[in-house]
Amino acid sequence: EPCGSLYKARIPRWLVEEDIQKKVFIPEYEFKKITEDDPKNLSMVRELYNNNFIHANRGDTLHDFYLSTTAWDTTIWGAFKGGEFAGYLLTYPDKGWAPESGSVNAEDYFGMVCRFVLDNNVDLSIELPLERLTEIRALEQYVLSSNMAMPSHFKILNREKLVNALMKFGNKLTPYCDGEVIIGVEGEGNYLISVKEGIPSCKKTEKDADITLPYLDSARFMFGPMPPCFVADLPKSKAGFISQIFPLPLYWNNQDRA
User: Fold this and answer.
1) CB–CB of 235/229 below 8 Å?
2) Is residue 248 a contact partner of residue 224, using CB atoms and an 8 Å limit?
């Protein structure tokens, strides 16, 4: 089922240039193409990529990582500030779309993205998982348009395990309030979704469901990208609790699609 949440934004060159004219300071960054002949900086790219909560195993060696990262005719551009590695942008040939990026800190992310737009004379489209809230907020002043999109199609093999993992992560991003709801999935069973003393949990239950959903609808209900009220009518007594948890931050990088 197509579901999950992917943040997409477009940063127009003219908007960045307008701030430059207003004497807004944007740091200088030098961009260098990173290949497997540069193991030091390629290792730093891999470290930033692996810091994402959801990421693919792109192989055990730097060679494998490089082949996977550049598999769709993409180029890794390392951003260097004062000669030091600050982050990277992965772009397609026209340099106008960056499906993957990472930085040492949010300040560097803001600076390197704006500098890349200026240096390459492009309007840049970027994609980020929702967990990267700091970077998303840092860029907001230069985003002319943005949207939430479905990053991929997913087959949920173990809903209990997946929901537990994503709830724990979501609770770190925005702490949940205590409560519980039982969600039924047709053909699969009922799940008790609960938060007790700040600890989230998902487990199968034989208790009656507060809301029951068809299998395909349940994926969009739990994993987005739209709020669950767009998928089904919420039980009034549980609507607040449901809305604080769902959709969960399920994400998949375009670069890692099969």
Assistant:
1) no
2) yes
Query: CA-to-CA distance for 196 and 147, rounded, in angstroms?
Result: 33
| Number of C-beta neighbours around residue 244 at 10 A | 14
Rounded to two decimals, the pTM is 0.88
d(CA 162, CA 68): 25
Q: Cα(20)–Cα(27) distance, rounded to whole angstroms? A: 11
| Residue 147: Cβ within 10 Å count | 10
* Residue owning tokens 């969960």: 248
155-173 exposure pattern, b = at least 16 Cβ within 10 A, e = fewer? ebeebeebbbbbbeebeee
- Residue 112 and residue 107: Cα distance in Å, rounded? 9
Radius of gyration of the chain (CA): 20
DSSP state letters, 162-230: HHHHHHHHHHHHSPPPSEEEEEEETTTEEEEEEEETTEEEEEEE-SPPSEEE-HHHHHHHHH-SS-GGG
- Cα(213)–Cα(116) distance, rounded to whole angstroms? 45
pLDDT tens across 181-225, in order? Answer: 999 999 999 999 999 999 999 999 999 999 999 999 999 999 999
Rounded to an integer, what is the distance from CA 213 to the centroid of its chain? 26
Total residue length of the chain: 258
Using one digit for the tens of pLDDT, what is the confidence trace for 100-157?
999 998 889 999 999 999 999 999 999 999 888 889 988 888 898 999 888 888 888 9
Please count the CA atoms within 13 angstroms of the CA of 231 that sit on its side-chain side.
24
Enter the DSSP assignment of 77: E
Distance of CA 88 to the CA centre of its chain: 16
